[in-house]
Design brief:
Number of domains: 2
Radius of gyration: 20 Å
Largest sheet: 6 strands, antiparallel
Structural class: alpha+beta
Number of strands: 6
Bound molecules: zinc ion
Shape: elongated
């Protein structure tokens, strides 16, 4: 499920413009599915690396442990950031920046057309 939230786009001079943040929200069911997929992938890798000589002493236990650890991290992820759009307070151009899904606001990034440093934050 996608959601749009109002945010503020701020530059280092403290000027702000209104912007929109796009977020994907995961339901409880989707979080379970995402977590189990990650667990299956890690354990599949553990099984696949079982046949690599010497390296399997490290890889197999590594992937076995990484399975539940990454699955729990996935399960705790209730939302992922998609993009932020609005007007850059420095150059005045309309822009959209793609965001790291794991990122959290407030964060510093760059305006897409002219690379001005901008800060995204909730109002
Ligand atoms: Zn700009």
């Amino acid at each position: 499920m996608a959601e749009e939230r109002p945010i503020l786009i701020e530059n280092d001079a403290g000027e702000t413009r209104a912007g929109t943040l796009r977020v994907t929200l995961f339901s409880r069911r989707e979080r379970w599915v995402r977590a189990l997929k990650m667990l299956a992938l890690m354990w599949l890798l553990a099984a696949a690396t079982l046949f690599i000589p010497v390296a399997h002493f490290v890889l197999v236990p590594g992937f076995l442990i990484a399975g539940p650890v990454t699955a729990v991290m996935r399960f705790r992820t209730g939302e992922s950031l998609e993009s932020a759009s609005g007007q850059c307070p420095t150059c005045g151009k309309a822009m959209t920046v793609s965001l790291d899904p794991a990122a959290r606001l407030p964060l510093w990034t760059y305006c897409a057309p002219t690379n001005d440093p901008i800060r995204l934050r909730y109002p």
